[in-house]
Amino acid sequence: MRVLRFCFALLTPLWVLAQPFYVSPQGDDLAPGSLEQPFRTVDRARAAARAALPQARGDVVVFLRGGLHPLERPLVFDAADSGVRERQIVYRAYPGEQPVLSGGIRITGWRQEGRWWRAPAPLRAFRQLWVNGRLAQRARGPAPPGIELLPPNTYRVPGAALAQWKNVDALELIYDLQWQRNILKVHAAARSGEATLLRMAEPWFTLARLKEGKQIGLPTALENALELLDEPGEWYHDAAARALYYLPRDGEAMASAEVIAPRLERLLEVRGSLDAPVRHLRFEGITFAHAGWTEPSRLGHVDLQANFRVMPQNLIARSGHGGAETGAEPALFSPLFGEAHKSPAHVLLHAAEHIRFERCRFVHLGGAGVDLEFGSAHNIIAGSVFRDIAGTAIQIGDVTDHHPADPRAVVRNNSVVNCLIEDAANYYLAGVGIFAGYTAGTRLAHNEIRDLPYSGISVGWGWGETDEGGGAYWIPFRYSTPTPARDNVIEYNHIYRVCRTLWDGGGIYTLGNQPGTVIRGNYVHDNPGWPGGIYLDEGSGHIEVTGNLVHGVKALDDRHPARPLNYNNRAQNRIATCKEHGNWFGVEPGDANFPRQVAERAGLEEAYRDLLR
């Protein structure tokens, strides 16, 4: 009978299927998808919407009812799911309700064991945990006093206790330095007299010690050991025993607590090709939540910048400099042309065009939020909230696509407008609010970006190496054509309380030549990490900076004075290519000439200011 019902649903006349469809967590995929008899999964509604579009006179709308929609696998849309300009396919929250597409599972069966609580965790690995909607802290502690490096890859720790820790080969060492967070795994531990020797996993440890840019020295913290579980709100996952340990915070009753761990790394994938892009989809009012990223648990995380990882296949050997501030050896390896691997996002657009996210929420995520890559064009993210994200909130473009073989692959003419971005990069601290690499025509406007550990907006890449004729650094060959980076617009954003943990970043940060790019009308203030304002870093060229208001940035030391606009693009006289005019730098709110109209215009426009409330 169920098979007959399913066949009947597929053979229902198209003029019926062209009506709105409904999805509910309490629905049935063998139902007709009506308001009274909704589907259970978005996948089933996707198939119905695809079949309905050819006969539809207007948009084909799929309403998602409120509640948690658990995903067992990512939602994948391809070119066959495309709408057309006159008849788009819309996935929309049912009025007054909040549907949540969740990639997590609920952890239950808690039992108390002394101070800790323990529950079975049927997952191989995860790095985030949410208890009653709050992010919990992976078990963590400070680096042991007296730890020292014994080259090439061993630390000596005073005392023999650490050698007896359970699952010490799962222990991770954290390194927070300047603009980076590196995470490196322990390979083995052994007692040596009255000390413990920690041998680090290779090749990642050597890469982190000898890569160009910034090299690690001693760790700043230890993470992921049961023996570190000593503060309320901390947790530890014993992967071998598939057991989860947690120390509750005040008021948390584990018998009734909602504890969610991520099992999916991708929630939504809109994947086309250059010959057949996915087009004209809209997502409105939907929450994307509870996804993770487990690669650092296997390999560690060797950071180059902005949460882009150094991988062995991208490296060339060359002499460099560095290590003075960390005690590390001089750099020996460098990523060729700055090519590194981006951290994956939980919502991906690949060769996608005219896709719109309107008033969506991206929360409780363990990697990056949204990624627009490879040929994605004319897409809009508007009025959406990005909060509690481990890495970068929004990634546009890449750092390996500086000279694409096919011009259609350029990521171009995408917009992020009127979005609220806060508490992003809360684990991978080097992430940023919005990152744009080698993109053309990107518009970032009227966004509210706050409470981040590093930069608010980062646009461009390459330090000049990939530009036509090269930059100031030695490279094995130089390109005779420019990169696609051009005509990007960063305007009327309100960016504050960023660079709170790391430094050598800014509210707005740039790299490389970007002809036609404009930074205007932004209000950037109260960012403690130097320089913190508008930062034209190495290779930045052909950028106009006008009408911006920057104050509340601080000096680091005598060599790093307070600079609302910081130039570090002095090679090849690139400063001369950047037009700076009509800005208000260092003008405080109490000053008589404070341009209140600039401050009031920046940030969310009136129609979206409810997001702040």
Topology:
Elements lengths: L1 H10 L2 H4 L3 E3 L18 H11 L7 E5 L2 E4 L4 E3 L11 E5 L5 E4 L1 E3 L4 E3 L2 E5 L9 E2 L2 E2 L1 E2 L1 E3 L5 E3 L3 E5 L13 E6 L2 E13 L2 E6 L3 H7 L10 E3 L10 E5 L4 E4 L12 E4 L5 E4 L6 E2 L1 E4 L2 E5 L3 H5 L3 E3 L2 E2 L5 E3 L15 E3 L9 E6 L1 E2 L2 E3 L2 E5 L2 E6 L6 E3 L2 E5 L4 E3 L18 E3 L2 E3 L11 E3 L6 E3 L2 E3 L6 E3 L29 E3 L2 E3 L8 E6 L2 E8 L2 E5 L3 E6 L4 E6 L2 E5 L11 E3 L11 E3 L2 E2 L10 H6 L12
Radius of gyration: 25 Å
CATH topology assignment of the domain at 354-612: Pectate Lyase C-like
Helicity range: under 10%
CATH architecture of the domain at 354-612: 3 Solenoid
User: On the 0-100 scale, what is the average pLDDT?
Assistant: 93
- Strand residue content: 35-45%
Give the helix tally. Answer: 6
Tell me what the structure shows.
It contains six helices and 55 strands. The chain has 613 residues and is mainly beta. It has a twelve-stranded parallel beta sheet with strand order 1-2-5-25-33-36-39-42-45-48-51-54, with helices on one face. A hairpin with a 2-residue loop joins β16 (172-177) and β17 (180-192). The longest helix has 11 residues, at 42-52. It is globular and about 75 Å long.
Please provide a brief summary of the model.
The chain is built from 6 helices and 55 strands.
